[in-house]
Amino acid sequence: MEGKFIIASGPVIIESGKLLVNKDDKDDFYKLPGGTIEEGVESLEMACHREVKEENNAEIEIIRPLHPMILWKNPKTKEKMVIVLIHYLAKLKNKTSIKPMPPIKEVKWISIREIKQGKHDVAPNIKFLIKVGDIS
């Protein structure tokens, strides 16, 4: 396929039945921390660590990879492209130090049970990870 390719990496952090999520001013739903990999500079795991540090001031330990997700168009603009989302189950090492780092406006722990009940508007990859059993 010709066109734009985006590879993004980020952690899935779960504690006591709650998922760590972010909200920024670009979207009106909660999403996982994470973002694009710096081409030719870092690995998927390095990007995962860097992105959660930049967005939440968080230090993590990666436990294992989860199911990747592929999108064939930009969910917002509907532009045809390939977006590969790489997820890692991770443990938060500095819970008392996390905070929103601009452009992140909010960092929140939300109940996975409530997400499944539709009580929170979340990103498509969170719904995907619940469907495949990586978030339960």
Provide a compact summary of the structure.
The chain has one domain (5-131): Nucleoside Triphosphate Pyrophosphohydrolase (Alpha-Beta Complex).
Description:
With 136 residues, the protein is an alpha+beta fold. The longest helix has 13 residues, at 44-56. The protein has helices at residues 44-56, 112-116, 124-131, and strands at 5-15, 18-24, 35-36, 60-65, 69-73, 80-92, 104-111. A hairpin with a 6-residue loop joins strand 5 (69-73) and strand 6 (80-92). The model has no long low-confidence stretch (mean pLDDT 95). It has a single domain (5-131), classed as Alpha-Beta Complex (Nucleoside Triphosphate Pyrophosphohydrolase). Strands 1, 2, 3, 4, 5, 6 and 7 form a seven-stranded mixed β-sheet that branches. Helix content is 19%, strand content 38%. It is globular and about 45 Å long. It contains three helices and seven strands; from the N terminus they run E-E-E-H-E-E-E-E-H-H.
